[in-house]
C-alpha cells in the first residue's frame, strides 16, 4: 500500500513538473551576441488622424520584408508569433497582410525552388490545435518548412494554471472540439485547447533572416493588426550569424534541425554601428544597464505597448532622479481588435511614472494599437543606443518566460538612424504637421485603487495576458 502511494505521488510530481524548463540558457535561449555593421535602417509603421478625418497609415516594414524575400538566393528564415486572418475588420489602413506574406513566399518557392525557406511560428495560430491554419497549410504545400514552437519547453509564467493543466489536461491532447467560442475569431474550439491557451506561453519573436539581411521588428504579419504602429531594424551584410544561432535554439527546442549561419561580410572590427542581438532575459539586462547609466542631460525616450515590469519602472524613475530627460509614450490599452480594454496595466504604470515627475503621453489610437516597443537613450558624450524588437516591458516578456528577440544598435548621435529615432518620437510627442498621434496623460488617467490592485496581482501571479 505504501509503495503504491509513493509511486502515485512520484508520478504526479513528474507530470506536474514535466516540460517546465527552469534554465532557458540550457536550451540555447536567453542569448546575447554582438558584432558591427555598416548598413542599418530604422523602419517605421505609424498611424495618425488629421483634419481630413479618417485614419492614415504610413508603413515601411513589410515592404522591406518582401524586398528581402525577393532578393534571397540561398535561404529565408522567418519567425513570427501571429500570422492569420483572425479578428480582421475592413477599415482605413487595413490589409490582408498574412495572405500577402503567404503569396510572396509561395511565389518565391515557384520562382526559386532551390531557396530553402523555414517559417517558425506559435501554436496560437491554430488556437493550440483546435482550428486549421490555412496560411501555413498553403506554405507547406509549396515546400516551406513550417515549425510549430514547442511551448511546453518554456517556463510556467502562470503556474496557477500550468501545474494542474500538466497533470489533468495535457495527457489528453487538444483537438478540434466545438465546446467553446473561439476567443480569437470565428469558429469554435475544444475545452482542452482553451485550457492550453491559459498557460499564456508564447514564442513572441518577430524575425526575418536571409543570407544577405536581418530584420528584427515588433510587427506581426497579422491582418487584424495591419494598421498598428510598429518599428523595425534592418541590417544588411551583418548580424545573420547571431540570428541563426538564436533561431536554431527555437528549432532544436521544437524537434527540428537548426540552420547553418552564413559568414558575415562585416568583420567585428569594422562598421560604424555596434549591434547586439538579445533574447529573453538578456533584453531586460540591457534595458536596466542603459537606464542605470543615465546622468544629467541624458535623453531617454520610451515608446511601449505594455509596461508593467517593476524593475524597469523603478529604473525609469531613478533615471529621472539622476537628471535624465525622460519621456514616455504608452498605448492606452483601450483597443483590441474591435473590443474595449480596461487600461490594465499601462494606466497603473503610467500613474507611478507621472507621480515621479516623468512626462507621459498616450498614443491616440482609433481601433489600432501602438504596438511599438522602442527605447532610445542618448548619452551626454554624443553616443546613442536604440533598442527595439518584440519585447514588451512586462514580467512575462522580460523574465525568461516568453521567447523574445530584440536588437540594440549604438552609434554617434548624429547618425541618420539615431536622428530619425529622435525625430519620430518628437513627431509623435508634439503632433507636428497638423497630425494627431498622441494625447495628454489626463485623457486616460486612472486612479482606481481596485484596478491598481488588480494590475499588480495579474503581473505578479502571471494571470494577466500581458
Task: Characterize the structure shown.
The protein has 466 residues and is an alpha+beta fold. The protein folds into two domains: 37-225, Endonuclease, Chain A; 275-461, 2-Layer Sandwich (Endonuclease, Chain A), CATH 3.30.870. Helix content is 32%, strand content 23%. It contains 13 helices and 21 strands. It has helices at residues 2-17, 61-71, 97-111, 134-141, 159-168, 191-197, 240-253, 281-292, 310-321, 346-355, 395-398, 416-430, 449-461, and strands at 32-37, 39-48, 56-58, 75-80, 116-121, 145-148, 180-181, 188-189, 206-210, 213-217, 230-236, 273-279, 299-304, 325-330, 335-336, 339-340, 360-363, 373-378, 383-389, 405-412, 438-440. The protein has a nine-stranded mixed β-sheet with strand order 1-12-20-19-18-13-14-17-21, sandwiched between helices. A hairpin with a 4-residue loop joins strand 18 and strand 19 (383-389). It is globular, with a radius of gyration of 22 Å. It starts with a helix and ends in a 5-residue tail after the last helix. 48% of the residues are buried. Mean pLDDT is 91; it is low at 3-21.
Amino acid at each position: 500500500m505504501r509503495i503504491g502511494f509513493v509511486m502515485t505521488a512520484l508520478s504526479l510530481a513528474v507530470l506536474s513538473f514535466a516540460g517546465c524548463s527552469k534554465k532557458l540558457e540550457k536550451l540555447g535561449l536567453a542569448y546575447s551576441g554582438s558584432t558591427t555593421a555598416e548598413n542599418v535602417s530604422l523602419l517605421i509603421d505609424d498611424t495618425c488622424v488629421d483634419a481630413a478625418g479618417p485614419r492614415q497609415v504610413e508603413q515601411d516594414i513589410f515592404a522591406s520584408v518582401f524586398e528581402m524575400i525577393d532578393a534571397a538566393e540561398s535561404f529565408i528564415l522567418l519567425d513570427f508569433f501571429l500570422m492569420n486572418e483572425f479578428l480582421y475588420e475592413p477599415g482605413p489602413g487595413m490589409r490582408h497582410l498574412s495572405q500577402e506574406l503567404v503569396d510572396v513566399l509561395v511565389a518565391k518557392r515557384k520562382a526559386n525552388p532551390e531557396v530553402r525557406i523555414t517559417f517558425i511560428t506559435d501554436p496560437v495560430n491554430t488556437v493550440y490545435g483546435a482550428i486549421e491554419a490555412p496560411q501555413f497549410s498553403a506554405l507547406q504545400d509549396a515546400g516551406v518548412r513550417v515549425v510549430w514552437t514547442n511551448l511546453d519547453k518554456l517556463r510556467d509564467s502562470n503556474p496557477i494554471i500550468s501545474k494542474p493543466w500538466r497533470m489533468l489536461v495535457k495527457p489528453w491532447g487538444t483537438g478540434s472540439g466545438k465546446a467553446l467560442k473561439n476567443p480569437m475569431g470565428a469558429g469554435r474550439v475544444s475545452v482542452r485547447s482553451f485550457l492550453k491557451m491559459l498557460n499564456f506561453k508564447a514564442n513572441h519573436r518577430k524575425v526575418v533572416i536571409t543570407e544577405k539581411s536581418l530584420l528584427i521588428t515588433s510587427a506581426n504579419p497579422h491582418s487584424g493588426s495591419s494598421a498598428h504602429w510598429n518599428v523595425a531594424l534592418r541590417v544588411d551584410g551583418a548580424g545573420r550569424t547571431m540570428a541563426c544561432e538564436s533561431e536554431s535554439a527555437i528549432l532544436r527546442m521544437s524537434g527540428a534541425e537548426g540552420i547553418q549561419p552564413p559568414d558575415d561580410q562585416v568583420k567585428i572590427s569594422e562598421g560604424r554601428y555596434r549591434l547586439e542581438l538579445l533574447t529573453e532575459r538578456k533584453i531586460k539586462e540591457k534595458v536596466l544597464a542603459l537606464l542605470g547609466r543615465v546622468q544629467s542631460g541624458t535623453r531617454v525616450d520610451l515608446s511601449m505597448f505594455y509596461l508593467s515590469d517593476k524593475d524597469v519602472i523603478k529604473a525609469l524613475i531613478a533615471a529621472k532622479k539622476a537628471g535624465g530627460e525622460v519621456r514616455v509614450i504608452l498605448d492606452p490599452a483601450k483597443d483590441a481588435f474591435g473590443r474595449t480594454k480596461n487600461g490594465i496595466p499601462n494606466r497603473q504604470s503610467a500613474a507611478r511614472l507621472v507621480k515621479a515627475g516623468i512626462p507621459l503621453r498616450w498614443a491616440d489610437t482609433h481601433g489600432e494599437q501602438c504596438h511599438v516597443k522602442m527605447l532610445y537613450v542618448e548619452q551626454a558624450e554624443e553616443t546613442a543606443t536604440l533598442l527595439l524588437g518584440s519585447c514588451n516591458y512586462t514580467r512575462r516578456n522580460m523574465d525568461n518566460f516568453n521567447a523574445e528577440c530584440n536588437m540594440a544598435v549604438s552609434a554617434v548621435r548624429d547618425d541618420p538612424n539615431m536622428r530619425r529615432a529622435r525625430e519620430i518620437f518628437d513627431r509623435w510627442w508634439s503632433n507636428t504637421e497638423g497630425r494627431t498621434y498622441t494625447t495628454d496623460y489626463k485623457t486616460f488617467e486612472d486612479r482606481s485603487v481596485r484596478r491598481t490592485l488588480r494590475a499588480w496581482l495579474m503581473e505578479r501571479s502571471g494571470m494577466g495576458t500581458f
